[in-house]
Structure to design on (559 residues):
């Protein structure tokens, strides 16, 4: 069974002369329990796919199936969708309400999903993301970037989703914190049996996290490959080749 | 924990609050510390606390009955025996009338400050969040209200509803809400596309919940600042309506009505109009000082 199935997905912004085609004819499948990476430079439409899936980008055509259930294009997503698909945003400085404490954020989300044992769940969520209850009543301005992103991850995990969308979850963070967050995500995936769909421009991050990769360029998918293919440099499309070489060069220069 | 961080202060300034109550109290306390650093704002607050106390204890503080006429002692100057601020054209004690007038002023200001910003907040946030034709209709209505001169519109309302303090309050509120709606809408437009609103939408929150739980808390602080800065204008509008004879009716000791009565004697007996004028001036100034201090504390844009 595939957790996510995109078929001929087109996403656009604006109408008429202002229309911008952000994604054109994207098709790929994410198997259940898999970690799947979307790679490409900025503006290649990778984040837009996530936004179309979650209903944040309203104009799209094609087919999207979540757990073999097809999404209705005209309507919003229902509660069952939000319970199974959640998203972690790119910038933890923008994704937390500036006037709400960690406790308020998590209890509101838990309340929305109809959980009763909110107290116990908040404690467990904070433990899960490695924060502990000392952070429970802090406001975002009392947290570092990495801690904020942990709160954002806890919020995404609150409804116990099976699919987690990661929109460049570490690109706004320090390099040292990036590794911590990535390892946390890996642990959480193993622990909760999550399916990841991860967007990144960083091949090193994707190689660390994912089993399958799709490379995007200017709104189109140019190549799909496995991580072992990538490691062995078995890629065909010139754009993915240049992307790979660029990242290798970067690593050598660093050493 | 060092020596200075013990006891209540330490509890309030703790980096790791242990309960909801402590987190709230700490946020309030930090705001208070920032506010306290502004001496002018503290002066404004002190004047308003004094005004409030005077209004509450008016019957005990006033040396005379504000309505007791004594035609033998009319138009006595400041410092007359038993009448510290003199008497007016009907021999009523001006100080007592000012003290009782504080109640009316607070009543007007309190009700307007409750009605107008709430109406503006509701219209502005709904308009900003919903967008589309709802936004169009609500904003055009706001524009119509904004296009009228405020006092003239209030006059029209009072003329239609009848003179009196309640109608004056209603008229002032009806003319005061559009700027709040504009502010609330502008704030909402900057907030509604942010990631934390997207995040709560992804948790299945509906528009009503997003507006009241996520957007209102962020709009309210700038509205509070704006309201305190507008308080002076509200007091002046109420006084203006009273002066024109459309607000509080005689013999009510409303400050604007008192000025209006004193106008006839302004050349020979200046204190009759000047004393209520000074009261209006002091309270308006106090609200402006307070508003300025609150802006430093509450406005998210001025946060360090």
């Amino acid at each position: 069974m595939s957790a996510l199935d995109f078929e001929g997905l087109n996403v656009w912004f604006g109408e008429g002369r202002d229309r911008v085609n952000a994604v054109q004819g994207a098709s790929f499948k994410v198997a259940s329990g898999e970690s799947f990476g979307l790679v490409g430079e900025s503006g290649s439409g990778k984040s837009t796919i996530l936004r179309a899936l979650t209903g944040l980008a309203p104009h799209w055509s094609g087919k999207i199936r979540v757990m073999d259930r097809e999404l209705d294009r005209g309507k919003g997503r229902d509660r069952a969708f939000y319970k199974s698909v959640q998203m972690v945003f790119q910038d933890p400085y923008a994704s937390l309400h500036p006037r709400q404490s960690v406790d308020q954020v998590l209890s509101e989300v838990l309340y929305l999903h109809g959980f009763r044992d909110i107290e116990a769940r908040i404690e467990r969520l904070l433990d899960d993301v490695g924060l502990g209850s000392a952070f429970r009543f802090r406001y975002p301005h009392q947290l570092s970037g990495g801690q904020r992103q942990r709160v954002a991850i806890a919020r995404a995990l609150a409804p116990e989703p099976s699919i987690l969308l990661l929109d460049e979850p570490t690109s706004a963070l320090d390099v040292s914190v990036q590794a911590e967050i990535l390892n946390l995500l890996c642990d959480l995936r193993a622990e909760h049996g999550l399916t990841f769909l991860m967007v990144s421009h960083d091949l090193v991050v994707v190689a660390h996290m994912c089993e399958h990769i799709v490379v995007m360029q200017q709104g189109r998918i140019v190549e799909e490959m496995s991580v072992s293919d990538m490691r062995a440099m078995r890629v065909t499309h010139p754009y993915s080749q240049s992307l790979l070489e660029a990242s290798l060069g970067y690593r050598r220069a660093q050493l | 924990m060092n020596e200075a961080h013990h006891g209540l202060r330490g509890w309030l300034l703790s980096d790791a609050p242990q309960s909801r109550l402590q987190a709230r109290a700490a946020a309030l306390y930090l705001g208070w510390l920032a506010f306290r650093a502004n001496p002018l704002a503290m002066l404004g607050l002190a004047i308003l606390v004094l005004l409030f106390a005077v209004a509450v204890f008016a019957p005990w503080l006033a040396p005379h009955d504000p309505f007791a006429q004594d035609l033998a002692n009319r138009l006595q100057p400041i410092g007359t025996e038993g009448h510290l601020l003199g008497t007016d054209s009907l021999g009523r004690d001006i100080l007592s009338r000012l003290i009782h007038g504080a109640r009316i002023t607070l009543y007007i200001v309190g009700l307007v400050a409750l009605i107008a910003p709430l109406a503006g907040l509701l219209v502005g946030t709904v308009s900003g969040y919903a967008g589309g034709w709802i936004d169009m209709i609500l904003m055009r209505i706001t524009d119509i209200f904004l296009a009228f001169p405020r006092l003239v519109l209030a006059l029209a309302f009072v003329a239609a509803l009848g003179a009196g303090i309640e109608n004056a309050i209603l008229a002032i509120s009806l003319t005061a809400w559009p700027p709040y709606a504009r502010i609330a809408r502008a704030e909402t437009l900057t907030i509604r596309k942010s990631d934390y609103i997207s995040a709560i939408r992804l948790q299945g929150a509906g528009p009503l919940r997003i507006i009241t739980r996520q957007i209102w808390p962020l709009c309210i602080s700038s509205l509070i600042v704006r309201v305190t800065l507008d308080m002076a204008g509200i007091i002046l509008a109420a006084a203006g309506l009273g002066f024109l004879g459309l607000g509080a009716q005689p013999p009510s000791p409303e400050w604007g009505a008192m000025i209006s009565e004193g106008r006839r004697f302004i050349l020979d007996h200046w204190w009759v109009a000047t004393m209520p004028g000074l009261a209006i001036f002091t309270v308006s100034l106090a609200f402006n000082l307070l508003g300025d201090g609150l802006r430093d504390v509450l406005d998210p844009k001025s946060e360090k």
User: Anything to note?
Assistant: Residues 228 and 291 of chain B are 5 Å apart (CA to CA). Residues 94-130 of chain B form the longest helix (37 residues). Chain B touches chain A at residues 15-20, 22-23, 27, 194-196, 198-205, 209, 213-214, 217-218, 300 (CB under 8 Å).
